[in-house]
Amino acid sequence: MYYDEDAQKKRDRMSQVLGIPVTDFELSVRSRNCLQKMGVMTLGDLCRTTEQELLGSKNFGETSLTEIKDMLASKGLKLGQLAPEKHAFDLFEPESLSPDEQALLSGRSPT
Asked: Quick check: 79 and 50 in contact, CB under 8 A?
């Protein structure tokens, strides 16, 4: 059986980095409060969070987003890199379409 010590060391190191609390970093009060309200406590939590989710949070804007991205980049990480992938069919909601769009989708001509 083959055991790759280097790969294991990389996984262990990544696991340690992802476990670092976001409170260990110099963040603005606004960013810190928004992350806390969202339940984001570690770098791993941040890597499972997308830009859209952060920007959708109340009081979280572009400045805070840039601050968070820079912090993650300093550790070689990115927002959303561990987020579960959403497929296009998972996001499609026919009821959110206008009546004309629904008619086109069903093959009928819009009225």
From this structure: yes
Residues of the chain predicted below pLDDT 50: 87-89
For residue 58, give the 3-state DSSP assignment. coil
Instruction: Convert the pLDDT of each residue in 26-41 to its tens digit.
Output: 999 999 999 999 999 9
Q: CB-based burial of residue 80 (10 Å sphere; 0-12 exposed, 13-18 middle, 19+ buried)?
A: middle
Q: Identify the DSSP state of 94.
A: G
Specify whether the CB–CB gap between 65 and 35 falls below 8 A.
no
Q: How far apart are CA 74 and CA 107, in angstroms?
A: 51
- Contact of 51 with 80, CB cutoff 8 Å: yes
The DSSP letter of residue 39 is T
